[in-house]
Specification:
By secondary structure, the protein is an alpha+beta fold. The protein has one domain: Hypothetical protein apc22750. Chain B (Translation Initiation Factor IF3). The protein contains three helices and four strands; from the N terminus they run H-E-E-H-H-E-E. It has a four-stranded mixed beta sheet with strand order 1-3-4-2. It comes from Streptomyces xiamenensis. This is UPF0145 protein SXIM_28870. Belongs to the UPF0145 family.
Length: 124
């Protein structure tokens, strides 16, 4: 059973309406307004079945595919929430996007954050 490309990677689609980049600027585009920090957050509880499977797998080595898929889904959800926040504040882009991931006894927290901005149209 193979994993699809969406199971272990991703990012927002071009049709999302908010451009999300990890850079501090976008060549050829001018920032007309800095709106401020935005973030998207998700917390996933630990799954006992995947914990047991991961514990066994970690003893012998190899990729923890179930956890890889869960983390990819969490990151995608955090970015979607980041984009919703940006859109709600009138932004059309998020610059300097980063992820922060932390774990606790209850699960894993994934936060995507960056600076919401308004960009001038590409031809202006």
């Amino acid at each position: 059973m193979g994993m699809s490309i969406d199971d272990f990677g991703g990012g927002p689609s071009a049709a999302a309406g908010v451009l999300v980049v990890t850079t501090n600027d976008i060549p050829g585009r001018r920032v007309t307004e800095v709106i401020g920090e935005v973030f998207g957050l998700t917390v996933r509880s630990r799954n006992l079945g995947s914990q047991i499977g991961s514990g066994i797998k970690s003893m012998f080595g190899g990729e923890l595919r179930g956890l890889t898929k869960t983390l990819a889904e969490s990151r995608a959800q955090a970015v979607e929430r980041l984009m919703e926040q940006a859109r709600a504040r009138g932004a059309n882009a998020v610059l300097a996007m980063r992820y922060e991931v932390s774990t606790a006894d209850f699960g894993t927290e994934v936060c995507a954050y960056g600076t919401a901005v308004r960009l001038a149209d590409a031809d202006s």
